[in-house]
Amino acid sequence: MSKIKFIPMAAAVATLGTALATAVNVAAYGPVDRPTYTLEDINKAASENPDKTTAAYKTFIEQKKVVLNSITNDGVIGDERNFVAAYEEGKNWNYDEITVEEGKTYNVTMYIHNNSPLKTQAVANDVNAVISMPLDYGKELKVSGFINAANATPSQYWDSVVFKSANGQNFYLDYVEGSATETYNKVDANGNIIEKGLVKSISDKVITKSGVSLGDMPGCFEYSKYVTIKVKPVFTDANFTVEKVVRKNGDKNWVESVDAKVGDKIDYRIHYKNTTEGHVDNVMFKDVLPTNMKIVSEVKLYNTANPNGLVEPGDIVKDGINIGGYNVNGDAWIYFTAEVIDNNLICGRNTLRNWGQIGVGKITLQDSADVVVQKTCTSETKTATSLPKTGPEAIAAGVLGVGSVVTAAGYFIASRKQLR
Prior knowledge:
Helices cover 5% and strands 37% of the residues. It is mainly beta. It has two domains: 39-235, no CATH class; 240-410, Immunoglobulin-like, CATH 2.60.40.740. Strand 21 and strand 22 form a beta hairpin.
């Protein structure tokens, strides 16, 4: 990533290089009503004459509060409320929106700073970072960053950046697995920087709801951090969306992954939406059922024509089914229940990934939902090292077309939920 510039607490606002662009206040950040401070407020509060600072910040210092990303002119990115940026390697950072091109890779970076000058006397405990990736296709897609710390006031902060296509073509953002990093300074016990801009890999879970822990963060600039991921825009003529979710039979909430055991019944739901500007016919659905799952219910289709559900007699796994035509913004929901069985479960963790595929014309999109089964064995335990072969490499031949299989040249995979 671009070289990061860390500014000591007492430094004045610096002129930034071309790697950093000026931050602009936008409504994408929040909470919008949190108190804000200037670099002058903080420097005065940290000096020998704290009475020179504002009353609000003096109270903040006296109470040793933990506040994150609330300085409006911090000398690093400018307004810290606008802390999520996107940029092509070596180019200007864009804090509001960025226009993307096919074939290029972009960084998404979030800046994290504990604003207290009290250093180890005002530590943000177990700071958590999340970068939320959009699952849909569109001409404009928003990537959001969230910072959480239970003892901070407020405890959660967020900001976003919008990715746009230059010509109005639809695209999705594909996360580059293994690209997540944390950039930080090595600081000694006295708060002195020993090494600047160190980079280490962090878990891909940063793009999940649970995020990643960055540990405790004392106050002041030397303890600031950056979290960065890489994404690639994938352009497509697809004008529809697909989402697959799962739940244990009897539960109310739909999720992207559920823990289960052999014998449990699992409900699946697939949602299709027509986002074209006209009517489409012959929408096809097929399900790629993982090993160790068996369908045990009727398959029901819900749409405008069938508000109470229509039982589909076809084989959704072998041949797929035609779920009809849809007007602009028309929706379809497909439900079925499967049971966890043990044909070849290994000892330890088994991730049973189910792919739901929707085909319109020569384009097929798919999305997945997981069932995680932990198998305990009395003999030597072996842990799964990979997912069952139900990923794109195993199912690329099964592309759906208008009532038939077409070539894989028209195949687009909606795989952003692979790590969720």
